[in-house]
Backbone:
């Protein structure tokens, strides 16, 4: 049996009066792609910073069996991360970026990075400030893909990129990087675009975990029923936790009901992560 | 690299994989210092530009000695004086380079731990397996070893080039013969300058470290905070009518040179010139090196750098 990649118990962190993390617990197994999803200021970035040893916090946390607070240096040889916006320094040349990472990272494969860069329009002599935002992200991705890390943390990696770059980014990530050995932790606003990517999701709001499940489990636990007419009232008796009207039809979300119970009322399917997210967030915001 | 991750891996090997060792120390430090020279290009551009100016000044520098100089026996018409003047020129010509270095190191020390937070690139640097101690060490090494030694070598080369160009000018009758090459005296001059440089670096290391700590600590522009230590002596005088702070600054500025006895040298006297290398015998090197304040200062520098590394480790002001 493999040990968990991330084991978090009761993570807490306050910025003044704001509780960025309010007792967050979760476990991430190896070989998963976990989406950490929440509205702005929900605590996603703080959670990632805790995992990466970038911020102080209270609670128990083990990442790859190491404590990010005291064993950060060893941890960073196995963990890669990309912060929300391009943070590559503007003065850095592409060739210098490669020299730098190969000089400090024992698991960097320069040839691999060159291979990935070869598929882009990025020139070795360019400085980061001369590249478009999309190209900077491609460069950063090329560096990361060439590092044989066990955990990859991506915080809004495609923020501000156009659709083509976003799609390319996730395709590269999935096809050229991900395998059974590796784990990816990803936060994003654009849930609907990447929901097919995830194997697991955690919804976080006001510093608390609202939902944590594997995508297979979501299908068993949640149903979305679309119906119209006089059956609506009867379906409502089964206590949907969220309801929304679309084009005269009503969409209801249920938790823990069997398909047999619901299919008599209308059209039944597994809700999308995006729909589930909206439903859960509205509930947790307005109790 | 390990190619097996492209294929199915036997179960259980993943968690058993040990954390890989860090990159070798010299390779890592070399990379980190190169990164400093990439980012702060003024560190080498400014001394290099000054060196070029100094070297080509051989073509137009004013060299006439007046009757006054002749009376004092300074005019380097005799062989011995011409050798002495060579070594004094060697020292004097290197001064503009060291002054340029002083400026760039001042700005470098104040900027090196602040710029990376300002442009948020610290999130990239911190995504690499480089500890904060290693980062701060590489920056201190850049400021206190790599750049000064580089400027020392550059100054030596500049002096030689200047002498050659000046010799060229003399050979076509464009200037009087005043410099005479003497390899041994040249080497003694270089040795004296290297010792002076090393002593200066040890003595001023706490000042550099203090600037770096300020750089790591400032949330806004670290230059603004400099007004505090700059105005402190004035404030002290206005409030207490004392000047302890000023005396302290004065001591940290001149102390080591007083201990060395630079005021009592015989390089340039009323009666003639002497080779710069004579300082090797004239100055009180022993006294300077056993000065407890020198080593106390080094210890303070180490403590300040340690504090800077701690600040870099735990400061969390790139909120996103």
Residues:
């Amino acid at each position: 049996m493999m040990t968990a990649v991330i084991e978090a118990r009761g993570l807490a962190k306050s910025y003044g009066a704001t509780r960025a993390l309010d007792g967050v617990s979760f476990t991430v197994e190896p070989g998963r792609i976990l989406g950490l999803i929440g509205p702005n200021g929900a605590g996603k970035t703080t959670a990632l910073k805790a995992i990466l040893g970038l911020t102080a916090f209270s609670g128990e946390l083990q990442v790859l069996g190491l404590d990010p607070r005291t064993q950060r240096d060893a941890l960073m040889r196995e963990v890669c991360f990309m912060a929300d916006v391009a943070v590559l320094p503007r003065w850095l040349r592409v060739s210098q970026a490669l020299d730098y990472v190969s000089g400090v990272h024992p698991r960097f494969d320069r040839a691999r990075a060159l291979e990935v860069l070869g598929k882009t329009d990025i020139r070795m002599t360019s400085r980061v400030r001369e590249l478009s935002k999309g190209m900077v992200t491609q460069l950063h991705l090329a560096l990361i893909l060439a590092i044989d890390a066990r955990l990859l943390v991506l915080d809004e990696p495609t923020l501000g990129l156009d659709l083509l770059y976003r799609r390319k980014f996730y395709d590269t990530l999935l096809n050229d990087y991900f395998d059974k050995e590796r784990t990816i932790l990803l936060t994003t606003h654009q849930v609907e675009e990447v929901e097919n990517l995830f194997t697991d999701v955690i919804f976080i709001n006001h510093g608390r975990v609202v939902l944590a499940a594997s995508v297979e489990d979501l299908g068993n636990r949640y149903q979305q029923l679309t119906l119209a007419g006089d059956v609506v009232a009867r379906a409502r008796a089964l206590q949907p936790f969220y309801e929304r009207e679309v084009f005269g039809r009503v969409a209801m979300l249920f938790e823990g009901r069997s398909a047999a119970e619901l299919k008599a009322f209308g059209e039944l399917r597994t809700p999308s992560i995006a729909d589930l997210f909206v439903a859960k967030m509205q509930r947790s915001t307005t109790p | 690299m390990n190619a097996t991750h492209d294929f199915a891996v036997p179960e259980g090997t993943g968690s058993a994989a040990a954390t890989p060792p860090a990159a070798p120390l010299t390779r890592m430090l070399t990379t980190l210092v190169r990164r400093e020279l990439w980012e702060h290009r003024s560190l080498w551009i400014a001394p290099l530009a000054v060196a070029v100016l100094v070297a080509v000044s051989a073509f137009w520098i004013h060299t006439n000695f007046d009757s006054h100089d002749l009376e004092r026996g300074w005019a380097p018409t005799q062989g011995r004086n011409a050798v002495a003047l060579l070594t004094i020129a060697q020292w004097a010509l290197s001064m503009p380079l060291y002054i340029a270095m002083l400026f760039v190191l001042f700005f470098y020390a104040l900027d090196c731990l602040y710029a990376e937070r300002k442009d948020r690139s610290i999130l990239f640097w911190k995504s690499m397996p480089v500890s904060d101690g290693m980062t701060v060490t590489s920056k201190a090494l850049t400021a206190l070893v790599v750049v000064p030694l580089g400027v020392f070598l550059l100054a030596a080369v500049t002096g030689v080039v200047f002498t050659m160009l000046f010799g060229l000018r003399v050979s076509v009758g464009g200037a009087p013969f005043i410099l005479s090459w003497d390899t041994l005296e040249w080497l003694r001059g270089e040795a004296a300058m290297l010792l002076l440089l090393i002593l200066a670096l040890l003595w001023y290391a706490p000042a550099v470290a203090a600037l770096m700590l300020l750089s790591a600590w400032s949330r806004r522009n670290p230059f603004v905070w400099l007004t505090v230590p700059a105005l402190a002596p004035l404030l002290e005088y206005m409030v207490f009518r004392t000047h302890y702070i000023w005396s302290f600054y004065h001591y940290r500025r001149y102390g080591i040179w007083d201990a060395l006895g630079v005021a009592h040298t015989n390089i340039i006297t009323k009666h003639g010139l002497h080779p710069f290398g004579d300082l090797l015998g004239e100055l009180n090197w022993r006294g300077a090196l056993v000065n407890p304040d020198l080593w106390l200062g080094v210890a303070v520098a180490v403590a300040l750098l340690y504090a800077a590394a701690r600040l870099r480790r735990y400061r969390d002001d790139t909120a996103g």
